[in-house]
Amino acid sequence: MKKHPQKNTPQTADVPQENKMGYMPVNKLIINMALPMMISMMVQALYNVVDSVFVSRISENALTAVSLAFPMQNLMIAVAAGTGVGINALLSRSLGEKNFKRARDTAVNGVFLAVLSCLVFIIIGFTVVGTFYRSQTDVAEIVDYGVQYLTICCCISPGLFLGITFERLLQSTGRTIYTMITQSLGAIINLIFDPLLIFGLLGFPKLGVAGAAIATVAGQICGTLLAFYFCRKKNPEVPLHFRGFRPQGEIIKAIYAVGLPTIIMQSIGSVMVYGVNRILITFSTTATAVFGVYFKLQSFIFMPVFGLNNGLVPVMAYNYGARNKERIMKAMKFGVLLAMCIMGVGVLAFQLVPGTLLRFFDASAAMLEIGRPALRIISISFIPAAFCIVCGSMFQALGNGVYSMFVSVTRQLIVLLPAAYLLSLTEQLELVWLAFPIAEVASVCVSTLFFRRIYRQRISPLEKN
User: Fold this and answer.
1) Are 444 and 380 in contact (CB under 8 A)?
2) How many CA atoms lie within 13 A of 44 on its CB side?
3) Which of 90, 131, 298, 379 has the fewest beta carbons under 10 Å from its own?
């Protein structure tokens, strides 16, 4: 009879007998795990917002160019973060099972995958960026600004891919305070150098949108170097030893079993944004700029919830490996409650002061006229989105990332894009924004079906063992 992995692998002397994810009270554990990540994700949102705030002072075309870069930037983040989710889930589950060798192998193979991903996007940066922009607009100034910005972001991307990977290694062992420090460092550097390099202050060259891109990648690289230091010095459960390293197909397959659906799920967001940009630009370039500003603003609401998600995944994965049903369900319930509270704050802000939010981006009268109803309508979808995100964390933690992928496909491709296109045929721009709450209703229905299925098949049987 096959024994439980916990009995197969001996503990090593340098590893604690029990990780805090197995004994700390669940609500306190989630706050302890997620709060630093929520703060760090808020800080991460500054990467998205600060560039646009400063670039908007150049011109609306410059702001539109940075907004149109979002699908490609989101694709990069999708690959890095999706792979990181796979690393995190496998590593945390291995620690829960006391399989420390597999945890170490997961870490080094994860770094290897980050390097490969970076090389792919360096090639993309040198080859397809111009085509990508020309497929969205024929305004020469927007294309010129966009190519400058996105080429730098793609070709100097090691900080993005390796930084997210090192941060996931720290998160998987509960050392989330270090990820808050590393991301804060990157954001601060970006914030300092954005105005210096965009406008040529204090003797720095005036580089415009290229300066915004350089400030972004500089912040990412500095954060990555600090994260690597923390991984080597502060994370003894997952030592990084690369001498004699060879890729392990079994580990890589296990990482992508969870990570690939997450990559696809987040990449679908790039397809959705690209498609909506194409729809909106038929109304005006200002409508596209408003959509870009919306994504910058909503990141301050969604990023903390994604930080909560990152805190929930290792908690649920660890306790699933430890076969503790009660702690899994407590984490799920508390996560839904906390996520809905965060989203509620976002709804209030978007409903009450949309004009104030838009003015951060030097909004013109036309942008305010389009943006106010857009923010109010889209924000209706925030609270149901909270439930779907937390359900996704459970799907990922238990190795069913494909469920999250299907929910995302349903929301963004099957419902949102077709709905936006059909509503655009009315030639009333305000109706196009209704596609977002419509899609979120569909997302809640599918998430609920999958949650009931995974509970019945994977969680409920735990009480019988």
Assistant:
1) no
2) 25
3) 131
